[in-house]
Amino acid sequence: MLKDFKKYCQLTHLSSICPQLVDLSSKALRVNNGNIPKWASAINAISHHQPGYVSFKPPYIAIDTDIIIDELTPSLKKLIPWRKGPYQIGKLTLDSEWCGDMKWNRLKDHIKPLQGKTVLDVGSGNGYFTYLMALQGANIALGIEPFLLFNYQFQAIRSLMKHPPNAFVLPLKLEQMPAESSFDTVFSMGVLYHQKDHIQHLQQLKAMLKTGGELILETLIIDPVHGEQIIPKERYARMRNVWCLPSTNTLHTWLQNAGFKHIRLIDVTKTTPAEQRATDWIGDNTQSIKDFLDPNDNNLTIEGLPAPKRAIFICQQ
Ligand SMILES: C[S@@+](CC[C@H](N)C(=O)[O-])C[C@H]1O[C@@H](n2cnc3c(N)ncnc32)[C@H](O)[C@@H]1O
Q1: Which residue CA neighbors atom 4 of ligand 1 most closely?
Q2: SS3 sequence, the chain?
Q3: Is any atom of ligand 1 closer than 6 Å to the C-beta of 308?
Q4: Ligand 1 pocket, 306 CB below 6 A?
Q5: What's the predicted TM-score (pTM) here?
Q6: What is the pLDDT of residues 45-82, one digit of tens each?
Q7: Ligand 1 center to residue 194 CA distance, Å?
């Protein structure tokens, strides 16, 4: 995949940062991770299946191919948990924990067209949205995702595609990106609340954008009745790494302070089990949102904090 990225990247507006991206990614892939042999053998087995053409058949990223379900399933299951999706591969439905199309539907009519654009998807997971961005006609959609398993999942899906779209996922953090304003559109979805320094994250996102470029920011928020922001003392909805839950007004101010303009709040949605739920593809730990909420009051998390609600802001560099 890195080879394909290197070859294609040179033809895009990312050509000047391409060598650095390749170098950083090769280093990240060389880490000592005991799971790599298992994941690599899964990819190897998957790549022997018949590839097919890809398209978006909501809710699925669908690959039109003639695979044998019982032969492909064990290899894909070596890459669990499949959090993001869903995917349809021939007759095999890879039903991920999250119904990604629901988020995409909330934002797709509000963003500037991606046709011909250079797009960055920060915290791309396995690349479900990165593929959608490329299928919308982006010149290149680059996902960055430090968690290695999700890079392997991206690769698994890609190896089943005949003529994959111009989507790539590299094992990088936003903080590692070369400081060059290269992108027309930047997505940061489900990432801000994982950052200890949210202002720095917003500034780094801004630094990625060309003048007039667009940021799509999706993150957990709280209703104003709960105050300006909550900083969870311990876990939030059983997650250990949640650092900030601002109100939408507070988040608006943070975006303003980071220098963004034309800030629009386009959606606020409570996360429900219709969007996030346990499926056969998440492995043995089958907990999902219903287990993260107070069993007697689904407006509260198990820790007594406001239940997950997410906002989408769109703003300009
Ligand atoms: C909750 S997932 C969201 C995935 C996807 N963007 C979505 O909206 O469904 C957040 C992802 O961001 C990644 N992430 C966390 N910090 C990051 C950083 N500093 N740079 C890039 N990715 C990061 C995590 O590894 C995780 O896979």
Answers
A1: 125
A2: CHHHHHHHHCCCCCCCCHHHHHHHHHHHHCCCCCCHHHHHHHHHHHCCCCCEEEEEECCEEEEECCCCHHHHHHHHHCCCCCCCCCEEECCEEECCCECHHHHHHHHCCCCCCCCCCEEEEECCCCCHHHHHHHHCCCCEEEEECCCHHHHHHHHHHHCCECCCCCEEEECCCHHHCCCCCCEEEEEEECCHHHCCCHHHHHHHHHHHEEEEEEEEEEEEEECHHHCCEECCCCCECCECCCCCEEEHHHHHHHHHHCCCEEEEEEEEEECCCCCECCCCCCCCCCCCHHHHEECCEEEEECCCCECCEEEEEEEEC
A3: no
A4: no
A5: 0.97
A6: 999 999 999 999 999 999 999 999 999 999 999 999 99
A7: 8
> Does the domain made of 97-316 have the CATH classification 3.40.50.150?
yes
Domain definitions of the chain by residue range = 97-316
**Residue 172 Cα: closest atom of ligand 1:** 21
pLDDT tens, position by position, 17-39: 999 999 999 999 999 899 999 99
